[in-house]
UniProtKB/TrEMBL annotation:
The lineage of its organism: Bacteria, Bacillati, Actinomycetota, Actinomycetes, Pseudonocardiales. Feedback inhibited by histidine. Residues 51-208 form the ATP phosphoribosyltransferase catalytic domain. It holds the Pfam family HisG. Its cofactor is Mg(2+). InterPro entries: ATP-PRT_HisG_long (IPR020621), ATP_PRibTrfase_cat (IPR013820), ATP_PRibTrfase_CS (IPR018198), ATP_PRibTrfase_HisG (IPR001348), HisG_C (IPR013115), N-reg_PII-like_a/b (IPR011322), N-reg_PII/ATP_PRibTrfase_C (IPR015867). This is ATP phosphoribosyltransferase. It comes from the Bacteria. It is found in: Cytoplasm. It comes from Actinosynnema mirum (strain ATCC 29888 / DSM 43827 / JCM 3225 / NBRC 14064 / NCIMB 13271 / NRRL B-12336 / IMRU 3971 / 101). Keywords: Amino-acid biosynthesis, ATP-binding, Cytoplasm, Glycosyltransferase, Histidine biosynthesis, Magnesium, Metal-binding, Nucleotide-binding, Transferase.
Length: 287
């Protein structure tokens, strides 16, 4: 079986959660030391640990088949690759920011200097708005660039907003981008059939983890007189599973429900007469 060549972040915010998600999907990604290539022979995958910023390059130009990186890093890459699955972690927004009062609107950026580690992404955004500004490309810690007089504003990743606040800056304008970790592949039309099949299996496994993270299993006992009303509350993915109970006039019901809706649904089920309402977590699944 040919190996699927998979690029994973070797450090940074995305590294640990990417490895955890793959491990939950059944792959063996653990590194015993600092090795940069790990073979998962049982699953026919070879993992290459690379800087997240370089991952789109390796995947886009075809040296590696798939990879996990940030949507913002993908869009900033000079080599294009296709986003095939958003992965729900590494969420962050990308904003312009400046000293409050000094700049409060994106239109005021015309002719100003903007520090960023994401020049392509920012340039394209400014062009779309017809704004001409000078970009100052920095590797990191861009928040300090305004204080040190290197730039008039910055464009950077904002997660909690703490770094901005402690640097005396505030965002202005709408978010330039909402980013999260994404699975990427080279231009799908250039992928051979065997690789496409391996990617399909990978995507199904990852979707299994995503569903397992966002849904819970709900079990309850329900009087048959209330079952129609209860089924409306728990439609499930196809339909709820209904089994007989060893008690006349009652059924046992099982269904998947969105994790964050579970408390409200449990209250509603109780109100229609359901009892012994249990919630349990999924490890993974194929839907
Ligand atoms: N708080 C955060 N800080 C930085 N990047 C974040 C954060 N939360 C999510 N991300 C995402 O992580 C990716 C940045 O990867 P990068 O390797 O630069 O991570 P990093 O946390 O900045 O690590 P380092 O600065 O050590 O290289 C981007 O896709 C970014 O949107
Ligand atoms: O909104 P917050 O939760 O404060 O997070 C955002 C900050 O985190 C990142 O910096 P990082 O620590 O990666 O350092 P870097 O700028 O050197 O990459 C990013 O560039 C912001 O500075
Ligand atoms: Mg960083």
């Amino acid at each position: 079986m040919a190996s699927l060549r998979f690029a994973l972040p070797n450090k940074g915010s995305l590294s640990e959660p990417a490895a955890r998600m793959l491990s939950e999907a059944g792959y063996r990604v653990s590194r015993s030391g600092r090795e940069l290539i790990v073979a998962d022979k049982a699953n026919g995958v070879q993992f290459f640990f690379l800087r997240p910023r370089d991952i789109a390059v390796y995947v886009g130009e075809g040296s590696l088949d798939v990879g996990i990186t940030g949507r913002d890093l993908l869009l900033d890459s000079t080599i294009a690759a296709d986003e095939i699955l958003p992965l729900g972690f590494g969420r962050a927004s990308f904003y312009f920011a400046g000293v409050p009062g000094a700049i409060s609107d994106v239109s005021e950026l015309a002719g100003r200097r903007i520090a960023t580690s994401y020049p392509k992404l920012v340039r394209r955004h400014l062009e779309d708005q017809g704004i001409k500004a000078d970009l100052v490309r920095l590797d990191g810690a861009v928040e300090t660039a305004v204080e040190l007089g290197v730039a008039d504003a910055i464009a950077d990743v904002v997660e909690t907003g703490i770094t901005l606040k402690t640097s005396g800056l505030a965002t202005f304008g709408d978010p330039i981008l909402r980013s999260e970790a994404v699975l990427i592949q080279r231009d799908a039309t250039r992928v051979d059939a065997e690789t496409a099949e391996a990617v399909e299996v990978l995507v199904r496994r990852l979707k299994g983890v995503l569903i397992a993270r966002s849904y819970v299993i709900l079990d309850f006992d329900c009087p048959t007189s209330a079952q129609e009303e209860a089924f409306k509350l728990v439609p499930g993915i196809e339909a709820p599973t209904v089994s007989p109970l060893a008690r006349e006039g009652w059924v046992a019901v099982r269904s998947l429900v969105p994790r964050h809706d579970a408390p409200k649904i449990m209250d509603q089920l109780w109100n229609v007469g359901a009892r012994a309402i249990l919630v349990s977590s999924l490890d993974t699944c194929r839907i």
